[in-house]
């Protein structure tokens, strides 16, 4: 069994608290991504799992064993580093076989095993090459083969794709998914790249300021973020600040920074005069040219919008083509909102056009000034 259990794990470097009270369970055979900005503690957490760092407090279990005080070489883990950590004076084959040599495997057996792993990561034929002759993507494949060669229960990957360009990174994401399914190992993957985490992970653990903020499946953390930090970190969004004016029992009304009211869900925790921030993700918003009918609606104090959500009108300030989508930046009374439109959408919208933006009320998320989420819709 290769479950990982972290209990109240903390790590300080002098006066710097790098990781604070992290408790986390990684299931046997799953791929969990630790995701967060630079300096949030995710790599330090991984290094404590591997044994390369000793916790200041807390406990690390792998399977049923307490390995908190065990050195890295006594743990059934292997790590792929961000900078690959290949020996430049050894051949590719010797690099892959190095861990096997340290474990006492015979020469021919470790050569056979190393060759097998190089073939698995599509690096057969490079056995006699020096790592200095390889591209970044090839180096990463060799580093992955070296980690797989020792057949660890737990594979740890610390920003393994960050040094690759977009095309190579996407190729390696597919490769990692295939390898994970084939070898059935427990993977912990550290990254600051949201797309990478969403592509690879069974579950995502989001970290900030040394703390574990939220853990869940990719769709769960994206659609149901615990706080404003998670909502902002996991993708582009529009944050609109406002103050609650009143409620009609079905909706509350928020006077916003672009000098109009929008509807938000009524909850038991919204009171008049409360300050709130609304999150409107650009892919959940609709954009349409302003017609005479919609002009009349937009001039109402409280526009209906789609699904009882709301709507505002403005002028397209800029249009950016992004491949499969078009991003429109819309000026609304001196403030800006941006919205994504599919390239297959038949509504032709250009810079300078007057448009209406609308959204469904179910896609609105509300946050308090301290960043906590407002929930408990009535």
UniProtKB/TrEMBL annotation:
<comment type="subunit">
    <text>The complex is composed of two ATP-binding proteins (WtpC), two transmembrane proteins (WtpB) and a solute-binding protein (WtpA).</text>
</comment>
<dbReference type="GO" id="GO:0015408">
    <property type="term" value="F:ABC-type ferric iron transporter activity"/>
</dbReference>
<dbReference type="InterPro" id="IPR003593">
    <property type="entry name" value="AAA+_ATPase"/>
</dbReference>
<keyword id="KW-0614">Plasmid</keyword>
<dbReference type="InterPro" id="IPR003439">
    <property type="entry name" value="ABC_transporter-like_ATP-bd"/>
</dbReference>
<dbReference type="GO" id="GO:0043190">
    <property type="term" value="C:ATP-binding cassette (ABC) transporter complex"/>
</dbReference>
<dbReference type="GO" id="GO:1901238">
    <property type="term" value="F:ABC-type tungstate transporter activity"/>
</dbReference>
<dbReference type="InterPro" id="IPR008995">
    <property type="entry name" value="Mo/tungstate-bd_C_term_dom"/>
</dbReference>
<feature type="region of interest" description="Disordered">
    <location>
        <begin position="292"/>
        <end position="316"/>
    </location>
</feature>
<keyword id="KW-0500">Molybdenum</keyword>
<keyword id="KW-0067">ATP-binding</keyword>
<keyword id="KW-0406">Ion transport</keyword>
<comment type="similarity">
    <text>Belongs to the ABC transporter superfamily. Sulfate/tungstate importer (TC 3.A.1.6) family.</text>
</comment>
<protein>
    <recommendedName>
        <fullName>Molybdate/tungstate import ATP-binding protein WtpC</fullName>
        <ecNumber>7.3.2.6</ecNumber>
    </recommendedName>
</protein>
<keyword id="KW-0547">Nucleotide-binding</keyword>
<feature type="domain" description="ABC transporter">
    <location>
        <begin position="4"/>
        <end position="234"/>
    </location>
</feature>
<comment type="function">
    <text>Part of the ABC transporter complex WtpABC involved in molybdate/tungstate import. Responsible for energy coupling to the transport system.</text>
</comment>
<dbReference type="Pfam" id="PF00005">
    <property type="entry name" value="ABC_tran"/>
</dbReference>
<keyword id="KW-1003">Cell membrane</keyword>
<dbReference type="InterPro" id="IPR017871">
    <property type="entry name" value="ABC_transporter-like_CS"/>
</dbReference>
<keyword id="KW-0410">Iron transport</keyword>
<keyword id="KW-0408">Iron</keyword>
<dbReference type="InterPro" id="IPR027417">
    <property type="entry name" value="P-loop_NTPase"/>
</dbReference>
<dbReference type="InterPro" id="IPR015853">
    <property type="entry name" value="ABC_transpr_FbpC"/>
</dbReference>
<dbReference type="GO" id="GO:0016887">
    <property type="term" value="F:ATP hydrolysis activity"/>
</dbReference>
<keyword id="KW-0472">Membrane</keyword>
<keyword id="KW-0813">Transport</keyword>
<dbReference type="InterPro" id="IPR013611">
    <property type="entry name" value="Transp-assoc_OB_typ2"/>
</dbReference>
<dbReference type="GO" id="GO:0005524">
    <property type="term" value="F:ATP binding"/>
</dbReference>
<dbReference type="InterPro" id="IPR050093">
    <property type="entry name" value="ABC_SmlMolc_Importer"/>
</dbReference>
<dbReference type="Pfam" id="PF08402">
    <property type="entry name" value="TOBE_2"/>
</dbReference>
